[in-house]
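I am still getting used to C-alpha cells and would like to learn alongside you. Please make up or recall a protein chain and show it to me in full. Would you write everything just below, so we can both look at the same thing?
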Amino acid sequence: MSDLICINAVYSRESGIFRYLADTDEGYIFIDIVDNNAMPKLVTFEELDDEVLTGTITEVKDPWQHLRSRHFQPDHDYIILRDKNYALIKPLITHPNFYSRNIRGSITNILVETGTASKSTIYRYARRYWQRGQSKNALLPDYNNCGGKGTKKTRGDKSLGRPNETAGLNGVELSPELESLMHSAVLDTILSGRYRIDLKGTKKNLFDIEKAYIELLLRYCEGDTIKLDDKKPSKALFSRYYYEKFTPERRAQAKHGTKHFNANNRVLTSTVRENLIGPGQSVIIDSTPLEIGAANEDRFPLGRPTLYAATDEFSSAIVGFLLVLTPPSYFNAVNCMTVAVCSKQEFCRNIGLEKYAGDWIMEGIPQAFFCDLGPEFKRQPIEQFVTVYHRSIKNSGAGQPDKRGIGEKVFDRIHGQINHKCPGVVSEYLPKKAGGKNSQAEYTLCLEELNKLLLKAVITLNNKPLKDWDGDADFPSDLKKTPNNIWKWGIANRTGLLQHAERNHFWFSMLKREEATVSNDLLKIDQIQYSCPTLAGIRIKKYHSRKKVTVVRDMDDASAIYLVPGEGKSDYIRCELSPHFRRYKGMPWADVLVELKKAKDAHNKGMHTYYKNSVDYLFESKNMVVQVNQDKKEKLGSLSKSEKLLYLGNKSKQRSESSKIYRAIKPEELHGERNVTEQVKTDSVALSKTQFFMDDED
C-alpha cells in the first residue's frame, strides 16, 4: 500500500484533509492541515487499506505548495527568522518517534527548561512545519497576510490617515455613496471619450485627474460650495480610488484612445516573422508624403512628392519604391508593385544608375500584398492580382498601423538615410510658432535627383545589419543579418525562387479595367475617341444600343488606350488617339480631364452668352418688323396690287438699293455723291439699251 501514497502529499479522508508525514513499522503518520491544534497521528495499515478499498481517501491539491518556491536573498530578515525558528524545533521534528505524544512532550520539556522558547511557541512552529510540507520555507513568517490587504478599513465617520495640516479642511470617509459619485465623475470626464487632436494628429484626453476631481466636488456639494467648507473628499482619496478601481490598461486607453493604445501600448504576444515561412510570403505596400520638397529643372519649387514603398515582411528588405509628384492613386500603386516584382535592371537604367541593379536582387511575385485601407487599395481593380496570379490581397483594419509595423518603419529608415543630405526638408511640426520649418523656397532637388538619392538609400539599407531581427533556430548565427543576406538565405532554404513576372504583362494586367463604347467604329471613353485597328474602319450608323468593350489606359499618357485581349488571347491591342482629339496627345489623363472640364465650362458660358444675344436679337427683330409693317401700311396702304408691284424686277432699282450696301464697304474717298441729272441721263440710256441687248444680270 505504501507504493500508492507519497510523503508530503495531501489526501482527503472522511475526517478531514491530512498530510502524509512518514511511515513506521506500525503504520502511517498523518496530520490534519486545517485543525489549529492538530498533532501527528498514527494510522495503522489496516485502517488505511480499508479507506483505499472503500475509496474514502483521495489525493488533493496541496494548498501550501507555493511556499516551496518562495525565494529571498540570504541576508533577508525573513530568511534569518526562518532559520532561527527551524533551529528551535529541530530536535523535535528530526526525532524518529516525533509522532509519539510522550516523546514529543519529553523533548518539548527539555527545550523549555533550557529557556529556548515556551511550549506553545515550540508546538506552534512544529505544527506549522508539519502542516505546510516539512520544508524550511514552511516557517517563513506570514507578514504578507497582516494589515487586512484588500479589505476596507473604517474609523467611524472620521477619515483614515493623519489629520490635514490645514485647519478647518476635514476629510470624509469613503462610503458606498461617495464611491458612486467618484465612479460617475470618472466616467463623465476621463472615460467620456472626448479628445482633442494635437499638431502630430495624436488624440489627447480633454480631462485629467484634476478636472475629474472638480467634477466630483460639484456632484458632492450639489452646487452649494458652502458644504465644502465643513468637509469634502480629498484629492488623494479620489486619486487612490481611480488608480485602484481602474486597471492600467483602461487608464492608458483613456489617455490617448483605443486606437493609439492598441498601436503603441498593447502587450505584444507574437512577432510578424513567427508566422512567416520566408521571403516573398507577404509584401507591405504603403505611401506617405516625402519629407523633402521637389523642384523642376529650373529649380522652381513644385511641391512634396508622394513616396510609395514595398517592403518584404520576413527580411525587412525594400523590394520596390515609387516617387512621383501625383497624389496617391491606384495607378501609382500598380507602378510600385511592378517595380517590386520585376527585375530592377530597366528601372535602374531609366533612373540613370544601372550599375546598382546588381545590388538590388529582389524580384518575383509574392504570395500576398499587405495594404492599408487607402482608397487605392480597397477598390475592386486591385483584386485582379488575385484573379490573374492566384495570389492574395490583405488589408489591415482602419487605424491599425501596428499590424504593418515593418512597412510603417521603413519610411523612417529611408528619411533617416537621406534627410541630413538634402535641402528643402519639411519638419514634423509645420507651424513656425511651434518650432516648425516649412519653407517651400528651399525646395531644390528635382524629381529625378530625388529618385537617385532614394535608390542609393535603398541599396544601403538593404545591406545594413538588422540588430533586432528575430530569426528561427535554423538561421546561421555567423551570417550577417542584412536584408540581402536574409533574402538570399530564405530563398535558398525556405520558399524557393518566386514566380517570375514579365514586366509588360504584369503592368497591363494590373491596370484598372474600364468600359469604352463603340460608335462609328471608334472607341470612346471619358469623351475622348480612339481608333481601333481591329474594327472595320467604315463609318456606319447603327441604330441599336452601343456596344461596349473592356480597355485599360495609361493614366500618364492619353495618346492611346489598350484593348483587353479576349478569351484565349494574350496581347493587348493599342488604340491610337483619334485625329479629332490630337490636342490631348501625350497629356496625362488628369490634365485631359481638367482641359475637358475647362472646355465644357467655356462652351457652357459661350452658350449662355449666345442665348442672351439671341433673346436681344429676337426682341430687336420683332420691333423692327412691327415698325416696317407700320411704315408699309402708311406708304402703300391706299395703292392697288398692280401699283404695289410696279418696281418688282426693276434692275435699276435693285442696283440703286445695292449701292447703299456697297457704299458701306467701299473706302470713304469713293463715297462721292452722284449728280441727279447724271443719274436721270444714265437711267434713260439704260432703258433705251434694253431694246437692243440684255443686261449682264439676265
Notes: Residues 676-695 have pLDDT under 50 and may be disordered.
